[in-house]
Design brief:
Elements (H helix, E strand, L loop, with lengths): L7 H5 L25 E2 L13 H13 L5 E5 H7 L4 H4 L4 E3 L3 H10 L5 E3 L7 H13 L6 H15 L2 H8 L3 H9 L5 H8 L19 H17 L19 H8 L4 H11 L2 H12 L1
Parallel strand pairs: 1-3, 2-4
Antiparallel strand pairs: 2-3
């Protein structure tokens, strides 16, 4: 400190240096574009209902606070380089949406432009694009199991195998197999899964039954479970007679759902477990 007074007015009049540089950590934002310049992602397996309460919630949030999170997109040319079969589906839009499908719909309803983030690296390969689409959806709590199943099916197709798809999605092979098995179920059962009317544990082996009988098998299973839940060993504790049947244990219920006998249980487990997992299970049962 020299004690010399600085003339702030003079500093304010100083011209900017011609070679001034923006710090490296600063980025230039992408200007919002009209929604019709962003084509919906044709590989998104999420069912987007424009009249759903969730869209209304997102729309209200955008009206109040603006679009807080940009939608990730790729250029049309980058997308068609790997998915040329979807050219008619995306039309002439210069961008294709990767994430933010519901935000796009909400903004379209509001007549507002959409904030985008261009990441053409996500279109480096078909597998990369499908994986990026699936990754966002799998993190959503309201992404139902059937939507997951169709996304997993796409991933298996592009990755080339169940093991490769499991690795790409950061899931186990068993999980991948269980999801793809859901696609073997009758449409009525699939709808029950979408509406959360039946837990997944009750349909994991249902695909082993012929189409046309699956609904009847499921109804019988649900009726038996209800009977087991309704059974109360204290109902007749003051009455003479046979001892009431106790509640079925979780293990007993699982055994019954798998077929009830060792051959049927083995058949059910072989349909969902890999050879390595079956070997591990066999070792554990012998201990």
């Amino acid at each position: 400190m020299t004690g010399k007074r600085v003339d702030l007015a003079a500093l304010a009049d100083e011209p900017r240096l011609a070679d001034a540089r923006v710090p490296r950590f600063a980025t230039q934002g992408q200007a919002p574009v009209p929604v019709d310049q962003v084509a919906p992602n044709p590989l998104n397996t999420r069912i987007i209902d424009p009249s759903s309460p969730k869209i209304t919630e997102i729309r209200n949030s955008i009206e109040m606070r603006g679009q807080l999170q940009s939608c990730t997109v790729v250029h049309r040319k980058a997308f068609l380089a790997i998915f040329s079969e979807y050219e008619s589906a995306i039309g002439v839009a210069p961008f294709v949406q990767v994430t933010g499908g519901r935000r796009r719909v909400a903004l379209q309803q509001l007549g507002k432009p959409i904030d985008i983030s261009i990441k053409d690296e996500l279109a480096a390969s078909r597998e990369e694009f499908v994986g990026a689409t699936a990754a966002e959806n799998f993190d959503r709590e309201d992404y139902d199991a059937m939507e997951e199943a169709f996304a997993v099916q796409l991933m298996v197709k592009e990755a080339g195998s169940t093991a490769a798809a499991a690795s790409r999605l950061n899931r186990t092979k068993t999980w991948v197999i269980q999801r793809t098995n859901l696609l073997k179920l009758e449409p009525k059962v699939q709808q029950m899964i979408r509406e959360a009317k039946v837990p997944l544990r009750d349909v994991r082996s249902l695909h082993t039954h012929p189409s046309g009988k699956q609904v009847a098998v499921l109804r019988a299973l649900l009726a038996q479970k209800k009977a087991d839940d309704d059974a109360d060993p204290t109902d007749n504790e003051d009455q003479p007679g046979p001892v009431p049947r106790p509640r079925a244990t979780a293990a007993a219920s699982a055994v019954r759902r798998l077929g009830g006998t060792p051959p049927k249980i083995a058949e059910s487990l072989r349909s969902v477990l890999s050879p390595e997992e079956l070997h591990t299970l066999s070792d554990l049962l012998r201990q």
